[in-house]
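Data availability (excerpt). The following record was deposited with the supplementary files.
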Amino acid sequence: MAKKLKPKRPAARLPKGFRDIEADELRASQKMLRTVQETYERYGFEPLETPGFEFTDALGKFLPDSDRPNEGVFSLQDEDEQWMSLRYDLTAPLARFVAENYDRLPKPFRRYAFGTVWRNEKPGPGRFRQFTQFDADTVGTESVTADAEICMLAADTMEALGIERGEYQIRVNNRKVLDGVLEGIGIDPADAAGVKRLTILRAVDKLDRLGPEGVALLLGPGRKDESGDFTAGAGLEDTAIAKVMAFVEAGAESGSATLLAIKQLVSGSEIGEQGHAELQEMQALLDAAGYADERVRIDPSIVRGLDYYTGPVFEAELTFEVNDEDGRPVRFGSVGGGGRYDDLVARFTGRSVPATGFSVGVSRLQAALGALGRSGTASTLGPVVVLVMDRGELPRYQRMAQDLRDAGIRAEMYLGTSGMKAQMKYADKRGAPCVVIQGSNERDQGEVQIKDLIEGAKAAQSIADNKEWKESRPAQVSVAEADLVAEVKKIVARHQN
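Predicted structure:
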């Protein structure tokens, strides 16, 4: 007789590049999102939510494999055998929405959105395949005033979150000036889908992480990373690499000095000079509003890695250092970015619709706030726990819990079957400020006992033995059942302040 095989149990494990997020971090994230939302709405942006899935062709991602378009995105086929993909950002879905609803939307259309995005890319430390973004976009105006305003919004958002001036900088460039440089080395700026052009953009975008030497390798033959993986380069000659690097490193102490250096590098290129003029106009607007150079600064090294940007591009960079787990100083670098993408809607309609926007990387920004001690991640008080001393009195205990909830207090009745000791341990793990206890003796007297767990823990530290602890019953009071809510309110208020 064949031996019966035991069913194979699945391993409890997370896929690479994904993570679980628990209560304290979630609450801190929600608090941060509310602050960002308030800032965006102050500028007149309206909320919009788009679905997690879009048709793959609507995302505009470079997809070399038509049979399985999964490079960079997570894809599947629907019931009609059409490929759908999880959105990799919030901008491409906005372009689809505008194209679908263009005639009824006000122009300019100003929207903000926050939600989860997914990237089918190699994960690494602090680099996840699923994360949250918070975007603001203005659609329907060609004026670089909209780009300057987005940069001002980004600066105001940093400060609203508690990141002070001098701890961040919004860095600005223009894709057109880089295209002017590329034109000078024989790369056609009109070939927006050109693989070599996109490879150069993505190489320059890694400057803060790889440094000039690493970028130069990616502009030339390619680069092997620490894990041994090889990234093919753009294959530029040494003279062309030198010209690109001269532009990338042309940033000066002031916007005016940087603009002068850029002007010399793109002289003779129509598209390059157009980009320079747009940067000059933005500089004047930012100067007038009091944002340049301390808060918003022109920086030629900013290009952004996505291929749909057509003009000004910007990044929010944190400038302070913190120590990692090994005590080594590290910089957070970019926590958000965006730019102008005038051709994205045209993919659907054939009609050019100018647009510009900015996106905040929520997880990275939250980590930075935590490093500064400004994240608001201090544990929220858990619920008050009503202990179950007599299972025949469950309705009575449930009423107590409900009375507390009706008064605006987080509360729960213990739903397990364990005894008092285990219930107390449960309340401790939940972070309960206090527990409510009513046995038969208290019930006969119309009373409840309320034990302040936080004060009790403090008092217990100074008590030498168990006998003394039992006799003193630290931070425990008896009150009339009618006074339950009032007494619990006092305890909760004490620990919230």
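Summary of structural features: The chain has two domains: 23-52+87-371, 384-496.
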